[in-house]
Task: inverse folding
């Protein structure tokens, strides 16, 4: 039987749901409950599920779905094993993004930062200001046709679009040139590719359950 949750607990849970969607792309409710209980006063599964079932998803950038909605050959998903899924992954009518990330996540450990760092991801615009990011931002700030504000906006937008654009450099370049009317020369394009590759390797990917490619290589190899 579920227990009545305090307003403060519900507010904190809401922050965890938002952060998890942004950091992981896909995570089971079971895994999210485990993370929450490790970092806070534990709550029971029934109370957690009741909270999840009462979220107004029309106000969120994620969905809560059952895996059996996407696969025909699996048993009915239990409520706690449903997935919290970032909205962009199931906007496609074929759900290709969902299938792809689920497959890429399979068998990988889950990155779990401390509570304060994890909750920074509740803001959809948050990303870590890594040395790779600072170098890429400096590259754009050094382009004479861009203002400092434009350069910063481009660098931030690249970080936020790495997951939705699947990290493809060509997609990122098209986004930059389309949104900001910025043209690369042969030299600047080469430098950009080098900086972007470093940024990608140090970015937290949904396909890696929050780990960066650099971290995942250390874990797996």
Result:
């Amino acid at each position: 039987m579920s227990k009545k949750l305090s307003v403060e607990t519900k507010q904190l849970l809401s922050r965890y749901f938002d952060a998890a969607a942004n950091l992981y792309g896909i995570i089971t409710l079971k895994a999210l409950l485990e993370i929450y209980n490790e970092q806070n006063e534990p709550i029971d599964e029934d109370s957690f599920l009741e909270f999840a079932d009462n979220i107004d998803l029309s106000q969120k950038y994620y969905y809560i779905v059952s895996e059996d909605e996407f696969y025909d050959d699996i048993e009915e998903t239990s409520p706690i094993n449903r997935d919290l899924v970032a909205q962009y992954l199931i906007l496609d009518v074929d759900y290709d993004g969902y299938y792809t990330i689920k497959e890429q996540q399979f068998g990988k450990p889950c990155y779990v930062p401390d509570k304060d760092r994890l909750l920074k991801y509740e803001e959809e615009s948050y990303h870590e200001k890594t040395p790779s990011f600072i170098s890429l931002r400096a590259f754009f700030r050094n382009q004479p046709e861009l203002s400092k504000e434009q350069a910063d906006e481009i660098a931030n937008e690249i970080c936020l679009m790495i997951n939705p654009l699947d990290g493809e450099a060509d997609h990122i370049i098209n986004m930059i040139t389309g949104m900001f009317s910025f043209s690369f020369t042969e030299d600047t394009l080469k430098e950009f590719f080098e900086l972007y590759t470093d940024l990608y390797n140090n970015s937290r990917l949904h396909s890696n359950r929050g780990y960066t490619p650099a971290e995942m290589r250390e874990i797996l190899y």
Notes: The radius of gyration is 19 Å. Strands lie at 26-28, 62-65, 83-86.
